[in-house]
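During the second half of the funding period, the structural biology subgroup turned its attention to how the target accommodates small molecules. The most pressing case was S-adenosylmethionine, which had performed well in the primary screen but for which no bound structure existed. We therefore specified the complex as follows and requested a full 3D prediction, including the ligand pose.
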Amino acid sequence: MDSGKRNFDQDAARWDLNPARVKLASEIGSAILREISLLPDSDVLDFGCGTGLLTLMLQPHVRSITGVDSSQGMLDILNRKISERNLTNVITRYADLDQGDVLSGAFHLAVSSMTLHHIRDVAPLLKRFCHLLHPSGLLCIADLDEDGGRFHTSSEGVFHFGFDRQKLARQFEEAGFQNVRAVQAASVEKPVAGTMQRFTVFLMIGRK
Ligand SMILES: C[S@@+](CC[C@H](N)C(=O)[O-])C[C@H]1O[C@@H](n2cnc3c(N)ncnc32)[C@H](O)[C@@H]1O
């Protein structure tokens, strides 16, 4: 685990060129669409939206979706997609929790894909999500099951080597969420030290 922050700006231009990343985001989006009912008048927050792979998958199903990220480079790519596709219901916002920025707004659903392991202190963020959600609003977080640090080739900016589902579920509950459950959303195969290894990604869902 690392104490520094990864600079995602340098990865932004090539982010979507990695088919494994695109497939992973697509599987996570499919899991969300399968596991919850998205209503057409929903306002959604995508925390750590990156280039918007998940944001744009959910966008056709909702009234608005706000993508928040601490990398302006990632947001620039998403902003380009928004203007190329003339999308009027996608909003982007720069916010870096590590710099003291505070998430704001009011949402029916908050989602986050593969970002939680980059957040040093998870508990305050979960509480903030709860605060931002309307009553009965849902939180859906997708991230790695415990991986022993093998998933990332560099541990720069990785504050959690995946998550123990039971412990994270307790943190959801402590933050104010009920009916917390997790399903497997995706699996990723990648070579680690010359051998193929399989990593699983959960989707944890809680209701305010
Ligand atoms: C692994 S990427 C995932 C991007 C996207 N959700 C996807 O699935 O393709 C993690 C994202 O979280 C963002 N991020 C990391 N730390 C953050 C923080 N403290 N505040 C806001 N965003 C953060 C990064 O800039 C990056 O875009």
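Two results from this model are relevant to the next phase. The chain has six helices and seven strands. The two ends are 31 Å apart (CA to CA).
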